[in-house]
Structures are given as C-alpha cells and as structure tokens.
Amino acid sequence: MSYGEMKYATLRVYGREMDPAIITEALGVKPSSTQRRGDRVGAKNREREIQVDGWFLTSRGSFESPDMVGHIAWLLDHVAGSLPRLQDLSEVTLVNLFCCWHVSEWNEGCRIESSMLLELGRLGVSLDFDIYGASNGEGSSVY
Which of the four pLDDT bands, split at 50, 70 and 90, describes residue 141? Predict the structure, then answer.
C-alpha cells in the first residue's frame, strides 16, 4: 500500500498516574504500544517529554482494508466487550479512536453507519480523524 493510500485506526487510552498494565489487564488485549509520563521521545534535536500515560492498540501493520470502517470494526472486535471496564478506572481520562487517513483521490470519503456511531457512544469512545491529502512531490497538494 502506498503512502497516499494509507489508512489505519488506533484505540488510545490516556490517563494521569495510569499504569498501562492495568489497561492491558482490563481489556484482555496486549497493546501495540504504551507510553509513560516523563518518557523522552523524538530525535535529539526535537526531543520532547511525554505528559500523560497512554495505551494504544492500532490496526496499522495488523489489518489491511481499503475502507476506514473496516479498521474501526477490527478494533471494536478486539475490545468492545471489555471497554466498559475502563469506566471503573479513575486513572483513565480519555478513550478515543484515532483514524489516520492519507487520501489518494479527490473527494474520497466513507460512511460510518449510525449503528457503529451508537456503539462508540455507548462505549464512551470519541472518534477523531486526521485526513491528509496527496502531495505532488513538491510539498503542495494535488488538489
């Protein structure tokens, strides 16, 4: 899959004083990655300190689909039954589904059915999109 066609979704769980191992235990799924408050990340000249603890499960590299809804469904299949357990954890401050979409065509879109939106709402999960347009190789959009 080319960069211009990349799509993936990531379930992100954030909190202060939150041990990511507690999230793994509550959800019964191993994360794709975690972060701890105070960790240093980035290249030396752009290094920054992580401000919040995080637990992440992503479809990137684990699931292929040309449809963003497929990525969202893949994540929900893994955690929907256990996500309500997070509501009992006071350390958790935010649960969201982050969708990254690099579009390769003009006017590309998707439909998220109301049943999926209702399920996300019932689970207390917000839905975030980052959408990037294709580049002509010179730093400007082809649109």
Answer: very low
